[in-house]
Amino acid sequence: ASPLHAPRSTAVVGASDDPSRDSNRITVYLKGAGFDVHPVNPNAARVAGLRCVASLGVLADEDIAIATVVCFRRSEEIAAIAEAAIAIGAHHLWMQFGVINEAAAARARAAGRLGVLERCIIKDHRRLPADRHLVRAAVPPAPVTPATRTATAPV
Predict the structure, then answer these.
(1) Dihedral, CA atoms, 14, 17, 23, 27, nearest 10 degrees?
(2) How far is residue 95's CA from residue 99's CA, in Å, rounded to a whole number?
(3) pLDDT over 90 (residue 18)
(4) Phi and psi of 57, rounded to 5°?
(5) How many CB atoms lie within 10 A of CB 13?
(6) How far apart are CA 29 and CA 44, in angstroms?
(7) I want to staple 52 with a disulfide (CB 3.0 to 4.6 A). Which of 18, 44, 85, 142 is the partner?
């Protein structure tokens, strides 16, 4: 299933408590769209009014199932995040614009997960017909830059 079709539990790794940061905007958007959002940042206590955890492992330790991991970290950090996402049973690894790690996407695919590279989750969610998700959050669109690519595993 697509990570966008129905609100599901989503971890935003690298979520920022700074409202001017894209990771904060995405967290706010997903929360407003009805997703069960879990910000992950060891240096923040709360993001968008939500309790922030230090790592994906903390979510697993608290028995919080995560379907999608959205990554706002440098590309070279994504391999470790992909391994953690696989370890906690996440179904999707989503790398935002500017975040590209082909090896991590391949590892996700090899583990039977969906790996999305360099795509904006807000833009993709807004493209869905209204009946495919619960609500559309009212967050102004972010500027678009590079072309996008998606790598998928057979389902």
Answers:
(1) 110
(2) 5
(3) yes
(4) -60, -35
(5) 23
(6) 19
(7) 44
Q: Phi, psi (5° rounding) for residue 110?
A: -60, -30
For the record, the structure tokens of 140 come out as: 């102004």
Compute the distance between CA of residue 69 and CA of residue 131 in angstroms, rounded to an integer.
24
Angle 5-29-155 from CA coordinates, rounded to 5°: 25
Average the pLDDT over 87-116 and give the result: 92
Token representation of residue 76: 């070279």
Q: Give the contacts of 134 (CB within 8 A, at least 6 positions apart).
A: 6, 7, 33, 34
Alpha-helical regions (H) of 33-89: 56-61, 78-87
Q: Exposed/middle/buried for 99, CB within 10 Å: 0-12, 13-18, 19+? A: buried
